[in-house]
Amino acid sequence: MAKKVSIGFQNKAVMLPLNKILPIRQIKPSDHGFGKYNTILASIREIGLVEPLVVHSQGGVYHLLDGHLRLKALLETGAVEAFCLIATDDDAFTYNARVSRIALIQEHKMIMKALEGGASEAAIAKALNVDVGKIIKGKTLLVGIHAEVVHILKDKPVTVHTLRIIKLVKTLRQIEMAQLMVSGNNFTHAYARALLVGTPSDQLVNPEQTKKVPGQTAEDVARMEKEMEVLEREFKGVQDDYGANTLHLGAVQRYIRRVLENTKVKRFLQQRYAELLEEFQELAQLEVL
């Protein structure tokens, strides 16, 4: 029977006086994430509060579960009330530990949608507290990148430098690089550069352009290209076999657990093959293969 999931908030959001909202922690410039404060402050000044505060009612006051930077910014702008969601549970952990950060490509698409909706570069820059030149330059962020690559990396923590490197290779290689980044959970500029070094010249947008690595000769780069090609081939081979190997290992683990449940077999292994028994027990206790 399916378990019923209860609603975590009251059905309607409400406007609450800020003097009735009590933060559960103090905000300091040294806190993780404080770097976003100026952006939040600029956004609130320009367009107002976008994301409601989350509070929990206790004895006539409201404990702030999520939105401490927003509350600080609202107070700095002189606001006296704010739009709030009232949570039914006093749970601050989920909001502060289970945070899904917006990715670069997602942010880019939001900005482009705002521009298409009639917002000016200057207004967006002011709302985000960035130089207007960054907004203008960022309009071409995905130009030269295949749509499939954009889809693969849309919610991944890629950087501007990583995307610039991806633009240097042709479509099929772009897709390969994106898939390798996702498989290795590595989206850094350094990894993208290593993949570029391992890219054959005929897969570069400008084949005549020499791939330069600081401190390395042309011979070193050629050797690195061959090594990266071998590593990629081996990695893809392991990736292709991973599912089947995991399935087989899971079956072996279940069999070993049943074997160890037999008292006579376990006693025999303990007397004759103690080291092997220890290995079996470690395998049987693994939660994640």
Topology:
Blueprint: E1 14-17, E2 21-23, H1 37-47, E3 53-58, E4 61-66, H2 68-76, E5 81-86, H3 93-97, H4 104-116, H5 121-128, H6 132-138, H7 147-153, H8 160-166, H9 171-184, H10 189-197, H11 218-260, H12 263-272, H13 274-285
CATH class of the largest domain: Mainly Alpha
Architecture (CATH level 2) name of the largest domain: Orthogonal Bundle
Largest sheet data: 5 strands, mixed
Q: What is the CA-CA span between the terminal residues? A: 30 Å
- Helical content, roughly? 40-55%
Q: What is the count of β-strands? A: 5
Task: Report the CATH topology name of the largest domain.
Answer: Arc Repressor Mutant, subunit A
Question: How much is the average pLDDT?
Answer: 83
Give the C-alpha Rg. Answer: 27 Å
Element order: H for helix, E for strand:
EEHEEHEHHHHHHHHHHH
Quaternary state, please? Answer: single chain
The helix/strand class is alpha/beta
Count of structural domains: 3
Number of helices: 13
Any key phrases for this structure?
289 residues; 3 domains; Conserved hypothetical protein from pyrococcus furiosus pfu- 392566-001, ParB domain; 5 strands; 9% strand; single chain; Arc Repressor Mutant, subunit A; 13 helices
